[in-house]
């Protein structure tokens, strides 16, 4: 099995790829075509919603297959609605999380779900998933400039430091990731948003609104997640 930097980051998958992923045994890492899978991000149409006492199941379809995304309810309905929003049947959503299995059924245990505001997102996502898969199988795909993409750079061993896998992110988002990784508590209870804002604003010219929007974008992409509350963040690794 090939281990790459992608096994510690977020990999886009089609729903067919989620269904093809497998484990050597119940405690093993999930793999697809010989490559270890860490977190995944999927996009699909919601065709059914099943609400249970402790969780909500969203059945998604994307034209390649069908997969359930499960998210766990918060302590109160207000917190639940604020974090997850009001997802409805027939919406297109993006879910980020880890592949799990119950019996013979695979599902994505979601740490983040958001509705898509771009009607083309599902098509872009499928092309991105295909690009990543091909680059892992056949080596880096280089563009007109001769440079490998962020994903292919990682899969070819070009990522040799902690920030290599984040080179494709906008500067402010990269700086936030750097701050989170630099804090001694980044692997425990998370880093408070105030610490992040103070460190980032030292660079000058960065507003609180810009920081908030960058944090939201990183959350949507599955690069970071909240820990003990909505004010503490941790890098998804």
Automatic annotation (TrEMBL):
Supply the source organism for this entry: Lentinula raphanica
Q: Please state every residue range assigned to the domain named OB.
A: 40-110
The GO cellular component terms are:
chromosome, telomeric region; DNA replication factor A complex; site of double-strand break
According to its UniProt record, what is one Pfam family this protein matches?
A: tRNA_anti-codon
**Subcellular compartments:** Nucleus
Enumerate the Gene Ontology biological process terms: DNA replication; double-strand break repair via homologous recombination; nucleotide-excision repair
**Keyword DNA-binding in annotation:** yes
GO terms (molecular function) for this protein are: single-stranded DNA binding
The answer to whether keyword Zinc applies is: no
Ordered alphabetically, the record's keywords are: DNA replication, DNA-binding, Nucleus
Member of which family?
A: Belongs to the replication factor A protein 2 family.
* Name of the protein described by the UniProt record: Replication protein A subunit RPA32
Mainly resides where? nucleus
What PANTHER family does this protein's entry cite?
REPLICATION PROTEIN A-RELATED, REPLICATION PROTEIN A2
Domain Replication protein A C-terminal, by residue range, is 145-230
Q: Source taxonomy lineage?
A: Eukaryota, Fungi, Dikarya, Basidiomycota, Agaricomycotina
InterPro entries annotated for this entry?
NA-bd_OB-fold, NA-bd_OB_tRNA, RFA2-like, Rfa2/RPA32, RPA_C, WH-like_DNA-bd_sf, WH_DNA-bd_sf
């Amino acid at each position: 099995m090939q281990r790459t930097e992608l096994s510690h980051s977020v990999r886009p998958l089609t729903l067919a790829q989620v269904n093809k992923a497998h484990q050597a045994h119940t405690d093993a890492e999930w793999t697809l075509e010989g490559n270890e899978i860490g977190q995944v991000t999927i996009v699909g149409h919601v065709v059914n919603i099943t609400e249970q006492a402790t969780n909500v199941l969203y059945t998604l379809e994307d034209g390649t297959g069908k997969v359930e995304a499960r998210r766990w309810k918060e302590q109160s309905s207000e917190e639940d609605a604020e974090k997850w929003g009001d997802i409805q049947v027939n919406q297109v959503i993006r879910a980020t999380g880890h592949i799990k299995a119950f019996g013979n059924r695979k599902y994505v245990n979601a740490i983040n779900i958001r509705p898509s505001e771009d009607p083309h997102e599902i098509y872009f996502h499928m092309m991105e998933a295909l690009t990543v898969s091909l680059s892992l199988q056949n080596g880096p795909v280089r563009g007109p400039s001769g440079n490998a993409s962020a994903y292919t750079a990682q899969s070819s061993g070009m990522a040799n430091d902690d920030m290599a896998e984040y080179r494709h992110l906008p500067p402010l988002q990269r700086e936030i990731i750097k701050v989170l990784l630099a804090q001694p508590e980044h692997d425990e209870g998370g880093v408070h948003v105030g610490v992040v804002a103070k460190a980032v604003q030292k660079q000058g010219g960065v507003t609180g609104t810009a920081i908030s929007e960058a944090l939201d974008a990183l959350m949507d992409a599955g690069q970071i997640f909240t820990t003990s509350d909505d004010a503490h963040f941790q890098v998804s690794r």
